[in-house]
Design goal:
about 200 residues; mainly beta; Phosphorylase Kinase, domain 1; Thrombin, subunit H; 2 domains; six-stranded mixed sheet; globular
C-alpha cells in the first residue's frame, strides 16, 4: 500500500469503515440578537454553513479495529483531513450531471436530466485551486431541472462544473479530542467513535 497523502481519499479511509450509527448535519450560521417587543426573533447570519457528524463503528475483531485506530491517529495530525459522505445517502450515479445555470441568490442550480434526483439527495463538486475546495450540497426542493439546495453556493462555483451524485463527499477533519478507539473484550473491540467537521482549506 502506498504512503498516505495529507487528505485521505474515500478509498483510503471512509469507504473502509463499517458504520453502525452516525449523524450528518449542516451547522446553523445564525446568532441571536435578541427579539422584538412582539416576540419576533432577531438573528444574523455570521457563521459558516458547514457539515459535521459523529460516527460509531460496528464491533470489530481487534486486528481490524487497530487498523482503523492507526488511521484515526494519523488524522489527528494538524493539517490532516479525509473525504467523507453521508453513509445513509450514498446516492447513485447520474450521467452528464453538471451545472447549467445558477440562481441569482445562489440557492438554486439547474442541471440536465434532474428527473431522477430526489429531494434529500446530496451532490458534490470541486472548485478553485491551491487549495482545491470541495462543495457538498443537499437538495431541498425541485422544479423541473432546477434544484434548490443547501448550503448556498459559495463563490467559485461556475456554470459547466461536473457534479457527483454517487458518494458525494466533502473534506473533513477529526475534531480534537473526539477519537475513542473503543473497549476490547476477549474477542472484539466495541464503541469506536469519532467526530468530524467539514473544512474548506
Amino acid at each position: 500500500m502506498a504512503i498516505l497523502s495529507q487528505t485521505l481519499s474515500l478509498d483510503d479511509f471512509f469507504d473502509g469503515l463499517r458504520v453502525q450509527s452516525c449523524t450528518f448535519a449542516l451547522s446553523d450560521p445564525r446568532v441571536s440578537a435578541g427579539e422584538t417587543g412582539a416576540g419576533d426573533g432577531l438573528t444574523a447570519d455570521v457563521g459558516s454553513e458547514l457539515w459535521s457528524g459523529t460516527c460509531t463503528l460496528v464491533p470489530a475483531y481487534h486486528a481490524d479495529a487497530e487498523a482503523v485506530a492507526a488511521k484515526l491517529y494519523r488524522l489527528q495530525r494538524s493539517g490532516s483531513a479525509f473525504m467523507v459522505y453521508n453513509p445513509r445517502r450514498p446516492g447513485a450515479a447520474l450521467a452528464g450531471a453538471q451545472i447549467s445555470a445558477i440562481g441569482s441568490d445562489r440557492t438554486t442550480i439547474t442541471i440536465p436530466n434532474a428527473t431522477s434526483v430526489a429531494v434529500g439527495a446530496f451532490l458534490s463538486f470541486s472548485y478553485l485551486s491551491d487549495p482545491v475546495r470541495y462543495a457538498l450540497h443537499q437538495v431541498v426542493a425541485k422544479s423541473g431541472n432546477t434544484l434548490e439546495i443547501v448550503p448556498r453556493l459559495r463563490h467559485g462555483a461556475v456554470i459547466g462544473m461536473p457534479l457527483t451524485f454517487l458518494r458525494p463527499a466533502c473534506k473533513g477533519y477529526i475534531r480534537p479530542g473526539s477519537v475513542n478507539t473503543g473497549l476490547g473484550d476477549p474477542l472484539l473491540t466495541t464503541g469506536m467513535t469519532f467526530n468530524w467537521r467539514q473544512t474548506l482549506r
